[in-house]
Amino acid sequence: MAAATLHPSPIPTAQRLTDSHGRVIHDLRVSITDSCNYKCVYCRTGEVGAQYPELGINEYLRLIRLFVDLGVTKVRLTGGEPLLRRGLVDLVRELAGMQTLSGEPLDLALTTNGHLLDKLAAPLKAAGLNRVTVSMDAVDAPTFERITRVPGSFEKVLGGIRAAREAGLTPLKINCVLMRGFNDDQIEGFARFAREEDVVVRFIEFMPLEEGRLWTPEIVVTLKEIVARIGRVMPLAPMAAREASETAQRYTFEDGAGEIGIIAPVSQAFCGACSRVRLTSDGKIRTCLFSQVEHDLYGRLRAGETDEELRAYISRTVQGKEARHHIGEPGFLKPSRSMVHIGG
Hints:
Blueprint: E1 27-31, H1 57-69, E2 74-78, H2 88-96, E3 107-112, H3 117-127, E4 131-135, H4 141-148, H5 153-167, E5 173-178, H6 187-197, E6 200-205, H7 223-233, E7 236-238, E8 248-253, E9 259-263, E10 276-279, E11 284-286, E12 295-296, H8 297-302, H9 307-319, H10 339-342
Parallel strand pairs: 1-2, 1-10, 2-3, 3-4, 4-5, 5-6, 6-9
Antiparallel strand pairs: 7-8, 8-9, 10-11, 11-12
Helix pairs in contact: 1-2, 2-3, 3-5
């Protein structure tokens, strides 16, 4: 791969990504596959596999470079399950060599279900990955495997978490999607897990992003309830946000050991400070998780548009970013793709 692709083109500050609501966009989530080796009940019906083509590694690099040229400083690789993707370590190595407009390296992270992480944690760290987030929805094997529908998955993920910590992919975050009556009995166990395993546990309110029709407002376990439940056994103290666009409300335990985050898009939406857009595995821009419209950036690349033309298209697209989602409101429509086919 040509070294020339690693250095940002000079882009005037006025052309950096902002939307029509005044939000600066600096965070890009890139799905590199919509294949997954799990069939989590809150995500997939279990009957539908990959639906969209994947791009080549060089094509992802070119598209990501366009966003970095426009001021993106954070890139998170997602799926599907990104550890399934051939060429992942090479992709990470090339991205780690990119510079942002300020001359700093990209802040490079990855979200995974952790099943293959025990073997890949050290190579990914060596390639330049900064940190990893592992999706893990229970801290006991029977509940976990009932969610993933994959026997033996709990021990594999636990091994991956420990390998990532040993490799230095920290702060290591564990994401748990809570569903009332299904895994909400895991809340207190996850609080203990955060302290015992030296990880940041982040609870996520269940959103209507699954392939089926499981979501209802009643199944959502809210931020307020989570804080109260943990507080009864291990008192929490709020922590200051690191930046305005941070998605999680952060807490520590009273003795300062351990951290809990709660991402509450349903009960306490944070759309007003949103700083992110998404690129699907087939090269479509999604300006919101709940977008009804996709924007075919890769199609324009294949048609021969120049980088300047592609950057202009990205800027116009981001200008139209939605003000907020409308979960739970009359007339709400689920997004045109489910979460596994969008990218986390």
